[in-house]
Amino acid sequence: MAQQRPRGRDRGRADVQRGGHRPDGREPGAVGEAPLLEQPMGFFPFTGTAAYLSEIASVTDLAYPYKSSDGKNLGPQVPDQNMPEPYDKDTWTLADQVEYGEIAAYAGMEYTAQNGEKLLYDNLYATPERYLKNGVASGVQAYVIDADQRDPYAVYEMLQSLERTKVEIDRAAAPFTVGDKQYAAGSYVIQTHQPRGNWVDQVLGTDKYPVDELPYAEATTILPLELGVVVDAVKEPVEARSSGSSPSRCRR
Q1: For 39, which DSSP code?
Q2: Residues 246, 169: Cα–Cα separation, whole Å
Q3: DSSP β-bridge partners for residue 225
Q4: pLDDT digits (tens, 9 = 90+) for 132-152
Q5: How distant, in Å, are the alpha carbons of 66, 89, 90, 202 from that of 4?
Q6: What angle is formed at CA 224 by the lines to CA 239 and CA 235, rounded to 5 degrees?
Q7: Partners of 183 in beta bridges
């Protein structure tokens, strides 16, 4: 049987997790720690958006009452962050699932109503500002996409995906040099000192695959690897005269 989730006894104790933070309370990939490969909540934690995640046992499998085979309470009985209140019965019913969903929904709405100003400042304002001012944990200052690519349309698709998530993209109006490498006019520069800087680092940077603890739901989030685009991670300031920021220019 899959691990059972607890049933809250009141609305203040439902198993609800606020988005924008890891289960340990830290923001994903916060400055001072390595970026995370796994991001079950997707894009939203990188924006500071508050989101609520609740999980309920499958109705398909458990529409009929499920009873413990040994007469003991169902599920783990040791409280932890994900399950602060272990389930204290030996039977799990469809009614329990419905009650669980109702408790989680009301708890989320109640928390938001009581902490609206805090969510707006600590999440929507403070998170993007942190990366705008401090950059990212990896130390990468910018990602540079050389104009000379095997598949220009793959570059266009990648930049379009970034633009949809409000990433700031610059295109060089003239050739420029970073370290020992020269880039042609038309190359793209994506700075990490921007409100979406940590998101840029997540989808353009290269992570070491976690051998000891496998990812939850994906093998990689690295767009260059998925699309076959060569992207250079640069750990020194990049200065290039910009001609604009629309990836649609890549079509030419």
Answers
A1: -
A2: 7
A3: none
A4: 999 998 999 999 999 999 999
A5: 11, 11, 11, 32
A6: 35
A7: 176
Put simply, whether the predicted model's pTM sits higher than 0.85 gets the answer no
Closest by CA to 6, choosing from 66, 84, 102, is 84
Read off the tokens for 147.
Answer: 């104009």
CA 16 to centroid of chain Cα atoms:
17
Strand, coil or helix: 161: helix
The answer to whether 55 and 5 are in contact (CB under 8 A) is yes
Contact predicate 78/86, CB 8 Å: yes
- Are 233 and 166 in contact by the 8 Å Cβ rule? The answer is no
- pLDDT tens-digit profile of 62-90? 678 888 999 999 888 999 887 788 889 99
Q: Can you give the pLDDT at residue 7?
A: 33
Phi, psi of 145 (to 5 degrees): -110, 105
206-229 core/surface letters (b: 16 or more CB in 10 A; e: else): ebeeeeeeebeeeeebbbbeebeb
Structure tokens at 173: 């109006």
DSSP string covering 91-131, please?
EE-HHHHHHHHHHHHHHHHHHHHHSHHHIIIIIIIHHHHHH
Residue whose C-alpha is closest to residue 109's, from 14, 193, 228? 14
